[in-house]
Each structure stands twice: as structure tokens, then as C-alpha cells.
Amino acid sequence: AYDVTNPFAINIYVLSYDAYKKLTRPNQALVTNLITHLKKSRIITDGVNIIDGYIINIGVDFVITVYKGFNKKDVLLNCIQSVQDFFNIDNWNFSQPINLSQLNLEIAKVDGVQSIVNIDVYNKTILDGDYSSIQYDIVSATKNNIVYPSVDPSCWELKYPDSDVHGSCL
After folding, report:
1. In what helix (H) or strand (E) does residue 60 lie, and over which residues does it extend?
2. DSSP tag of 148
3. So what's the pLDDT on residue 3?
4. Burial of 72 (0-12, 13-18, 19+ CB in 10 A)
5. What pLDDT sits at residue 12?
6. Residue 52, SS3 per DSSP
7. Whole-angstrom Cα distance, residue 158 to residue 88?
């Protein structure tokens, strides 16, 4: 329950996983259990609001060049795996920015990568398929190679790593 009349209430933002470890809004049973647990240790005058967090689904496109003597397909597959590992949901928290320089470095560490020509992180929404309805202007939120999250507690999610990451070689 969300009590906007209590200015001293603490807001707890919650997301959960579904059976496939995709972010989802918590079900009522989880919220009820959380409330029951918190009631045991809170002071009677404490106000606690349990609010659904926001999910910002993303996709990643990148272009690399590969050193001579390396198999381009193998290098590209290893780069895609590197991006998927970078965005593994276990590594992300609410309101964590995306450091594009770090993402660039992770791709550059892949054996055979000569250079990264371009990296594009973009928002995927319900208009693109089975994604969150949250629309987020990633271009405007990017400053000095950091994609800053929204003011509202949100979490980035690469929902379908096998189809939301695209790479190519020049």
C-alpha cells in the first residue's frame, strides 16, 4: 500500500523474477509476506510504502573490427557473450547507471578485437514485443559515456540476451 499522506514513510521499491529469471512486478503474495516480515521489526509509528520498481528493457548493437588471422564469427560470438555477461541481471541494482566505457572495455578485452567502431544501447518497449511499457530516452540520459537512470527507481534489463544483442564486423 502506498500512503502519500505520510511524509515520513519509507519507500521500498521491489521487483521480482519470473520462472525464467526475467524481471517482473511482484505478485500480491510477495508483497503480503514482505509486509508481514517488516511489521515484526518496525516501530508502530513507522510508515512503509511498498512500490513496484520500474523495468527499462534495453537492446545493444555494436560494430567491431577484427585482427587478421582471427575467425570473425568466433570473435563476434565471444563479443556477444561478453555483452550478455555485462548485462547479466545479477550484476544490476536499482538506479545503477550504464557505464558505456566499461562496456566498451569488456568488448575490447575479447581476443581478436582490433577496435570497437560503435556501441548503441537503446530502449525496447512493448511496441517492440514482450517488453516493459516504460519508454526511456537513453540518448538524452547519456552524458560523458554514462547512461544515467531515471529519477524513479528503475533497473535496466537485457530481457532476451539471445535476440537483444546484435553485433557485426567491418
Report:
1. strand 54-66
2. P
3. 63
4. middle
5. 85
6. strand
7. 8
Mean pLDDT, the chain cut into blocks of 10 residues (170 residues total): 70 89 89 82 73 94 98 98 97 96 98 97 95 96 96 93 96
User: Which residue has 557473450 as its cell numbers?
Assistant: 81
Is residue 59 within 8 Å of residue 122, measured between CB atoms?
yes
Rg over CA atoms, the chain = 20
Residue 31 DSSP SS3: helix
Q: Looking up cell 508483497, which residue turns up?
A: 31
The strand pair at 48-52 and 10-14 is best described as parallel
Could you give the maximum distance between any two Cα atoms of the chain, in Å? 69
pLDDT of residue 92: 95
Q: Give the integer Cα–Cα distance in Å for 85 and 80.
A: 9
